[in-house]
Write a structure and sequence with these properties.
The chain is built from 15 helices and 13 strands. The chain is mainly alpha-helical. It has a domain of 181 residues: Alpha/alpha barrel (Glycosyltransferase), CATH 1.50.10.20. β8 and β9 form a beta hairpin. It is 57% helix and 7% strand. The strands form six sheets. The protein has a three-stranded antiparallel beta sheet with strand order 10-11-12.
């Protein structure tokens, strides 16, 4: 299959104008931000999360607090004296965006800005580990308490991708060395749970044994991409075994549950985690070339994605079986996924433009940022979140604008 680098699609000025306004908002507001997870990370909400999961009536006890924190998030932040924070994940996404713009335009201003993000990330890794890794600066409860800054497969993968982007853009080996170090973290510090077939699933963080498809396959993508540049065969072998695991547990209709076996919490089938899987598989296809043997599974997964995650073929749904709430990260990842896959499936090229158009019309604020969520009852949470919304939409718009030839 030919990998297409440029597609001749006219990109309307509204996308470029929105990109510039968002760029200015990010520059003006800086790196610190509130976050969708800062209220759940407070001591009260961590206790409520534990009660909710461990007791039968817990969800009824926790519901009023969760409901009002959703309706009045900034009031809760004042009550709990929550401060803004810097999120490594956001800086990784912003770095990827600017490096891509630099690759497409050759304008140094983009890489100069990306270098600021990369330098900060180099100097702010998770403590207590021999290799480069990153987590989130908040406590998080998911079946167990995950303390803040515990390195995560997902966060480290996004940032590793940024360093690989930088290496491909400049040839500077220190960026590749950082990516190799992160791969060592994946192998040495995450749990690699091997099933009876010899396939492996990477844990979500360094202190759990969760089996999560999107986390597993984004690690696989970084291992294989780093193998391509370093020629380390072990990275390729381990990456392929992780890919084999996630492909094996694809549902017959092409979808993936969030949780993977043997965890018996199948959970939801959602937009952006499915998008992560498809995007990661596209990366693996690109760097494995003829050694990629999952075309049918990719086709099946993409068919499910296209047919189940878009209302009226354009509005990104968070879950495959309901429209609301409409979440900005679903919008952003939909654009990213479809732009990336359009390099192999050229028939997709128009769709991300339509999604971006809807998102700008319905979730973009005149002040230059994107809203967090739209709810069924008409309520709109307009809070700007750099990690959850703005950084993702900045990457989405960057990919959209600079991937296609303008005419």
């Amino acid at each position: 299959m030919e990998y297409i680098n440029n597609i001749n699609i006219k990109v309307d000025t509204k996308y470029k104008d929105t990109y510039k306004l968002l760029e200015q908002w990010i520059i003006k507001n800086g790196w610190e931000s509130y976050d969708v997870c800062d209220i759940p990370a407070t001591k009260l909400f961590l206790i409520l999360s534990h009660i909710k999961q461990k007791t039968y009536f817990g969800k009824y006890f926790a519901h009023p607090f969760i409901y009002f924190s959703t309706k009045k998030p900034n009031l809760f932040r004042k009550i709990f004296r929550i401060k803004k924070n810097i999120f490594p994940q956001a800086l990784g996404l912003l770095a990827r965006s600017d490096i891509f713009a630099y690759q497409k335009t050759g304008e140094e201003i983009y890489f100069d800005r990306a270098k600021l993000y990369l330098d900060w990330l180099e100097n702010h890794t998770s403590k207590g580990y021999d290799d480069k890794c990153w987590g989130q600066p908040y406590d998080w409860y998911s079946k167990k308490l995950i303390p803040k800054n515990t390195p995560r497969a997902t966060v480290t993968s996004i940032i590793t991708s940024a360093f690989l982007d930088a290496y491909e853009a400049t040839g500077d080996k220190r960026y590749l060395d950082t990516a190799i170090s992160s791969c060592e973290f994946f192998i040495n510090d995450l749990i690699m749970d091997e099933d009876k077939d010899g396939h492996i699933c990477f844990s979500y963080t360094s202190i759990d044994n969760f089996h999560v498809h999107n986390a597993n396959v984004v690690v696989a993508a970084n291992l294989i991409r780093t193998y391509y540049h370093s020629k380390r065969q072990d990275l390729k072998d381990i990456g392929q075994r992780a890919l084999d695991f996630t492909v094996k547990y694809q549902n017959n209709d092409g979808s993936w549950y969030y949780w993977a076996p043997p965890d018996n919490i199948l959970g939801n089938i959602d937009n952006y985690h499915t998008g992560f899987i498809l995007e990661a598989m596209e990366v693996i296809r690109k760097y494995l070339g003829k050694d990629f043997h999952y075309e049918k599974q990719m086709d099946l997964g993409l068919d499910f994605y296209i047919n189940h995650f878009f209302e009226n073929d354009v509005i990104p749904k968070l879950f495959h079986n309901c429209l609301y709430p409409i979440d900005i990260q679903s919008c952003a990842q939909s654009i990213i996924t479809l732009v990336e896959l359009s390099k192999s499936y050229s028939s997709l090229a128009e769709k991300p433009l339509k999604i971006a158009d809807w998102t700008i019309k319905n979730m973009f604020d005149p002040n230059g940022y994107f809203y967090y969520r739209l709810y069924k009852n008409g309520y709109v949470d307009k809070t700007p979140y750099l990690r959850w919304a703005e950084a993702w939409m900045f990457r989405a718009l960057t990919n959209l604008i600079f991937s296609f030839n303008k005419s």
